[in-house]
Structure formats: structure tokens, C-alpha cells
Amino acid sequence: MKYELKNGWNTNIDKEIVFKFAEGYKDFLKVSKTERESVTEAVRLAELCGFKPLESFTALKEGDKVYAVNKLKGLIVAVIGSENISSGVNIVGAHVDAPRLDLKPNPLYEDGELAYFKTHYYGGIKKYQWGTIPLSLHGVVIKADGERVDIKIGDENDDVTFVITDLLPHLAQEQMKKSSSQVIEAEELNLLIGSMPLSGEEKDAVKANILSLLNEKYGICEEDFLSAELEIVPAANAKDVGFDRSLIGAYAHDDRVCAYPALMAALTTEACGKTAVCLLSDKEEVGSMGNTGAKSDFLKLILLELLDKTGEAATQLNLLRCLDRSHCLSADVNAAFDPNFPAPYEKRNASKINYGVAIAKYTGARGKSGSSDASAELMGKIRTLFNENEVLWHVAELGKVDAGGGGTIAQYIANLGVETVDCGVPVLSMHAPFEVVSKLDVYMAYKAFHSFYNN
Ligand code: MN
Ligand code: MN
Fold this sequence. Notes:
α4 (253-267) packs across α9. The longest helix has 16 residues, at 15-30. A nine-stranded mixed β-sheet has the order 1-2-3-13-4-14-20-16-18, sandwiched between helices. It is α/β, with parallel strands linked by helices. It is built from nine helices and 22 strands. Bound molecules: manganese (II) ion (MN) (2 copies). One manganese (II) ion binds next to loops.
């Protein structure tokens, strides 16, 4: 039989359900501009659905719904299944960090009687895309006395905004000859934050005025920047794209467009055979390292807790057995074929907008380097599962073989012994300040993850 792909809108899909799910996702994006905010919102949604902190249980039984937060930047949500933990669990793993500009430890300075923040970009960005767009500031400051100040400024209509300036075309003759990676260089990604001098101040009076305003509003001083995590993100909120409203444009679809459906799939799972685990990681965009990334032991810790609290011995042997018998959908975005820029794609193996979730058997670059390659057996299992549950899906590579490439958390989960495959939503303009996805594909991600938990 001939294998043919179908545009999801040419199937019997219910447009109303698809669009309704998209509204929930847009609401999530609105309050989840950083990994910390994503985790906070995910916990709020989980609690609304009856999930409780894992530490509040002394014993767990089938049907119990738990969550565990990893240092405010990562999260595991789980629904206890009827089978033993040591017989394996079903994991959907996504990440909630996204490319952005972090403030440097000493960010504040004045130059030419204007005040700026120095930044250090996080993750893979095209630097020139961050000039001349409205930006907002999100994050936390820990004061000398230990108090935490949450900062979130630039997204509400009456909020101020911030910007990185660029040279006018009239005087850009030399700049325009540079390669695009140097049009705006890393040390030119300086955020404009004010211009008014503090009266009576002789030196750096604009900077002094900013410090005085920050102190007034947040009670912080210059040294407090040394114990802070402040992130510059695009100020625009998620918007429908297109006359037909079929697409969503937003910052950080990568990877909240998988994190939200993964979370919702876990929150709407009632009874399952294998325990359903939704893992939301931090630091994927910089290599998954550190104690909040997917390379950390957090997943293992929580699985040991689940073994213990469900009455199994929390031994290394049981943990390894559990991992060895587990399955994971590494839920991360794929590069949707862009008719505007067809060159780096291989059309027969590229993901497509409106064709449902994209399954990537492997990622990596140049000869599958650095990739986890899912087994034919796992591909077969997922294929049958999705077909039986009317999940629209297709397979994809990230581009032409030697065109580039990228990674996900798949390899780190697979390293633990877990049968793992990448499965996520196709994105246009990935890693740009405003990325585009299809509402149909977002809903299909939810359906895919829900069927995976409930098989
Ligand atoms: Mn990603
Ligand atoms: Mn990414």
C-alpha cells in the first residue's frame, strides 16, 4: 500500500477542539516567559487538577497524582499507574528554557549619557534579530538578607519596555558589509534602560537615577545584581497568525509548545497501567547540564522516591530495572519546512506545518554525530499507537544531512537505558524572538502524549 501524508485540515479533525486547546496554550505562554515562570504556572495548573507535592505523601497508590519541583526551574508531574514502578514508566520529557539574553553579573552602566544593561546571550540566537524589538525583563534578585524579589516588567500594556538599538541605514554602509553573525555583535547587545540624569549628581547621573528608581520600586541596590538571574525576553505576547487564525506566533514555542501539551496530557490522565511521568527540564538550550538540566539526577531521584513510596525497595537494581523498561517521548520541536528558505531542507524527510507531530528517529548532525537513534522496535510501537489513536504524525530529520543539526534531551534519557524517541511540534523561525506553529499540530502533540500515557 502506498504511504501518503495528509494535511490535518483535510481529515475529520474538529476545528473547535483544536482552537480551544490553542487558547489554553496561549494563556500559558502569556505568564510563562522564563523557565521559572513556566514551572510556577505548571504547578498552579497541576494543583487545580488535584496534583499534590510528592513530599506530602508517605505512601502512594494507583491513581495518586503528584508533582516535584527541581530548584524552581524544573518539574516532574506523575500519575501513579496500576503496574509496579520497577516494570517501567512512560516519560514525556520537554524543556522550559528558551533562547534569550541574560543580564551579565555587573550589568548596569552609563555611556553617552544613556543607561544600559550588558547582556550575555543564552542558547543559539541570530543576534541581529534582537535589535529594535520591544523587550521585557523577567527574573529574580536575591538581596543580601536573603529576600527574593521577583521582577516581571514589560509585558503589560501600560508597562515600560526596553530595546537594543541598531544603526540607521544611512550610516550603516560598513555594518552592512559584515556577515550577519556580526551585524550586531554579542557585546553590542546592550539594553537601553534610561536617559534621565539624577539631579545634583555629577558623574554617571543617568545610571544613578536608574539605581534610585530600582531601589524605590524593588528595594534593590547595585550589588544585588551579583545574586540575580535576570532574563531579557521579547515583550510581545502570543498572537494568532494569518487571516484564518490557524497559526500561533509567540516567543519560546521551543519548547513550551511541547511542554504544555505534555503537561496537559499528564493532568488529564486518570488511570494508567504504567506510571505517567511528565518531565519539564531546564538548560536544554545550552546542553542540558547542571542540576536543573536533563543530565542531572533529578529524574532518578524522583523514580527512587516513587519506588519507595509505592512499597518497592528503592534500590539501585530496581531503579535500573525501571529505567531499562521505561519508554520516553523526548518532546521537542522540529524544523518545519519553510518554502521561503527551501535550500537546507530535504523535502522527503522534513517536518511540515499542519501534518501533526513530527517523530525524529535521530537528531544530531553530520553523520548522526551526537544523536540517540531510536530502535526500529520503538518506532514500530509508537507508529501503531498513534495510528490506533488517530494521532496525526509524520517522520522528520532536522534538515539536509550536512546542513547543520541540533540536539534534544533524548540522548541523555536514552543513556539511562530508556527506550527514547524525539516527537514534537514543527516550528517556523525556530529560535527567533517570534516563532510560528500550527494550532492543529499543538493539539496533535497533546493527543500523541495522552495516547502514550494511556496505552
Ligand atoms: Mn528545544
Ligand atoms: Mn532549541
